Amino acid sequence: MTTLLWVALPYACLAVFAAGHAWRWRHDQFGWTTHTSQLLESRLLRLGSPLFHLGAFGVIGGHALGLLVPASLTERIGVSEHAYHVVSLSAGTVTGVMLVAGLALLIARRLVNGRVRRVTTTMDKVLYAFLAAMVVLGMAATVGRNMLGGGYDYRETIAVWFRGIFWFQPHTELMTGAPLVYQLHAIGGFLFLALWPFTRLVHVWSAPMAYLWRPYVVYRTRRRAVGAPGPAPAAVRDAARRPVSSGR
């Protein structure tokens, strides 16, 4: 079971993540979109979407920093373990709360608005359920374990195991002793990567960054001047198209 959870599962999920994106791009480019429902409801979306995206960017950045950057490197540049812990806990709590608030608004929008609910697909429901579970586990680890509990230094165990996956040397013994909430969060994270290519999240890789510097689109309408003759009736146009006989 140890090898299955901490070796086979991560590699299988990473393979599905890569192959799924390749398949989706080749066979479903039309569905490579956010499937926006802004025209159906915009009030909750205007509030929930920025909160969710800003919180997600912060959470992803915090995970990347904590898992990929060794503790020895941060100490070498003058950041003590205590200072890193305080900053990461504070930033993680703030961005986590933003993510929770944004996700709650987006889910509520799908539930209370009939028009938005009707265009919500089964995969959307699976995605939102997965996101909610991941956020709950993450907040339980950040707030429940590190802020209210005794704390846990995941950089000495989980981060080392995670980096070992990419070097084909995952140290499974480091995960067997990790707290259950961290184990569930790690398993859920890899399953989430396997789910990613088959959801609307693929739009992340084709973000319309060109919109930031493209010129404005100018719309003009042609208005008929006052007193100008309008378009001719259909009967007049048809008569004008008929050839004129010579009368002979």
TrEMBL record:
Membrane topology is: Multi-pass membrane protein
Instruction: Give the UniProt record's GO annotations in the biological process aspect.
Output: anaerobic electron transport chain; nitrate assimilation
Q: Which molecular-function annotations from GO does this UniProt entry contain? A: electron transfer activity; heme binding; metal ion binding; nitrate reductase activity
Instruction: Tell me where it resides.
Output: Cell membrane
Could you state one GO cellular component term attached to this entry?
nitrate reductase complex
NarG-like domain location: 3-222
Q: Which UniProt keywords apply?
A: Cell membrane, Electron transport, Heme, Iron, Membrane, Metal-binding, Nitrate assimilation, Oxidoreductase, Transmembrane, Transmembrane helix, Transport
Key word Electron transport present: yes
Which InterPro entries does this chain map to?
Heme-iron_electron_transfer, NarG-like_domain, NarG-like_sf, Nitrate_red_gam
- According to the UniProt entry, which residue ranges have a biased composition of type Low complexity? 227-237
- Which residues span the membrane? 6-23, 44-71, 83-106, 126-144, 180-199
For heme b, which residues are the binding ones?
Answer: 53, 63, 185, 203
Source superkingdom: Bacteria
What cofactor does this chain's UniProt record say it requires?
heme b; Mo-bis(molybdopterin guanine dinucleotide)
Task: Answer whether the UniProt record assigns the keyword Heme to this protein.
Answer: yes
UniProt region (Disordered), positions on chain: 227-248
What family does the entry list?
In the central section; belongs to the NarJ/NarW family.
Task: Enumerate the PANTHER family for this protein.
Answer: NITRATE REDUCTASE PRIVATE CHAPERONE, REDOX ENZYME MATURATION PROTEIN REMP FAMILY, RESPIRATORY NITRATE REDUCTASE 1 GAMMA CHAIN
Protein role: Does not seem to have nitrate reductase activity.
Q: What is this protein called?
A: Nitrate reductase-like protein NarX
> From what organism does this protein derive?
Actinoplanes nipponensis
